[in-house]
Write a structure and sequence with these properties.
Length: 434
């Protein structure tokens, strides 16, 4: 294979450039002669000798092999595959982790992280608001395997130490929190874990697992702030175009073997076609999309803050944001600049009518707006709106939703790449009607 002779080290290039070119000297596939990496589609691989086959099985799931720069011996799609491997190299780099293992969906990656970290008799301590399916995984399925889950408030990490028991193995949370956009201090949770771990054996160490789906590695890199494992959905901001589902686990090399074996046996592999989309479209445009979406999100937040029908706006970049200092310390892009992201939550002033103003607004926009679409999901190039109280968080009892800061008048906006004038004008016209 001809290799290029780069005159600057890969690490000397900025992340935006790296995400476009990937590991140009990748040994996962010879694409020295492609401008765009190829998508490979084969379930099995031709083995030129029995010896090669045997070697392939021995090397499979070894971090030493994966990181050695040797050309891997591919055997069968569910074990390992080149398009996915190239995406994994690039995602690990983006998150600042040593290894990445991708999955068929964000939920498959969360299941794999928890499935490899936990044993029967151990316990998860999680923040009390979680993505609905993660909550369901933890309450409906983990207990069947002898893993208990307790939900506590991570917004005050100083009180977290008192919640940890000898059985606690995982501290799990999302930040920013969906949909209220409150932040959890990752470094502070790390400090709590370190205190507890001082007296524990390696296998019982408390692990910090962070779901980085909302921020994406462009706005926040939890491993650098002390997380042990990052999980995230590729379906949202990382994929960016809303065409494919996927998920990823990013961690240190120690996790590679068990997460790869878990994926092999549970089988939730990312299809090469979906991996290719994230590799070729999603990651290379991440920085540019986020930069532009963030500018618009800031403008939309500023507009909403001033609107007489809006009671409050929660956006990490808003003047009124209650955790400004933490936001500026934790949500930063790879160049060190403040990166508050593309998600905005706002609460309308209620009117005591049968239908809330938020429901009327969302319904009006669904029918009349061109630049804003009523849909779940987020992080796409199209601006999406939803009403968390009746939609994404409907499964939670009303009392619980209110206790967790979720308001019937709350609206969640995922800002896209449309011209910001149009988004604000559509919101302005809709707000006049409700
Ligand atoms: C969507 C989402 C998930 C699940 O991802 P899928 O790709 O839909 O399985 C997990 N966590 C958060 C925060 C999400 O928004």
């Amino acid at each position: 294979m001809e290799t290029r002779k780069p005159h600057r080290k890969k690490e000397d290039y900025r992340l935006r450039t790296h995400l476009i070119h990937g590991n140009y000297d990748s040994k996962k596939w010879d694409y020295n002669h492609h401008v765009v990496p190829p998508v490979s589609h084969t379930t099995a691989y031709r083995l030129s000798s029995l010896e090669r086959g045997a070697r392939g099985f021995v090397q499979f799931a070894s971090a030493d092999e994966a990181l050695s720069g040797h050309i891997p011996i591919y055997i069968y799609d569910r074990l390992d595959e080149p398009t996915r491997s190239m995406l994994e190299e690039n995602l690990a780099y983006a998150e600042g982790g040593e290894i990445c293992v991708t999955f068929a969906s964000g939920m498959a990656s969360i299941s794999a992280a928890l499935g490899t970290a936990l044993r029967q008799g151990q316990e998860v301590v999680a923040h009390r608001i979680l993505y609905g399916c993660t909550y369901s995984l933890m309450t409906n399925w983990l207990p069947r395997f002898g893993v208990q889950v307790r939900f506590v408030d991570f917004l005050h990490p100083e009180s977290l130490a008192a919640e940890i028991t000898p059985a606690t193995r995982v501290l799990y949370f999302e930040t920013p929190i969906n949909p209220t956009m409150e932040l959890i201090d990752i470094a502070a949770v790390r400090r709590v874990a370190d205190q507890v771990n001082a007296g524990r054996e390696e296998k019982d160490r408390v692990l910090v697992i962070v779901d980085n789906t909302f921020a994406t590695p462009y706005c926040q890199r939890p491993l650098r702030l002390g997380a042990d494992i990052v999980v995230e959905s590729l379906t949202k901001g990382l994929g960016g175009f809303g065409t494919d589902m996927g998920g990823a686990v990013i961690a240190s090399r120690d996790w590679y073997n068990s997460v790869m074996l878990f994926r092999k046996d549970v089988g939730g592999i990312l299809s090469p076609r979906s991996a290719w989309g994230v590799l070729v479209y999603g990651l290379p445009t991440l920085a540019t999309r986020m930069t532009n979406m963030q500018k618009t999100a800031q403008r939309v937040a500023d507009f909403l803050c001033k609107h007489p029908k809006v009671a409050s706006v929660s956006y990490p970049g808003a003047e009124s944001f209650s955790q400004k200092a933490l936001a500026r310390q934790q949500m930063i892009n790879p160049d060190g600049k403040f990166a508050p992201g593309s998600m905005v939550y706002f609460v309308l002033k209620g009117e005591n009518a049968k239908q809330t103003r938020a429901e009327k607004l969302v319904d009006y926009l669904a029918e009349h707006a061109y630049s804003i679409t009523l849909a779940v999901s987020l992080g796409q190039i199209k601006t999406l709106i939803e009403h968390p109280f009746s939609m994404t968080h409907a499964a939670l009892p009303d009392e619980q939703k209110r206790a967790f800061g979720m308001h019937p008048e709350g609206v969640r906006l995922s800002i896209g790449l449309e011209d910001w004038h149009d988004i604000i004008r559509d919101l302005e016209l809709a707000l006049e009607r409700v």
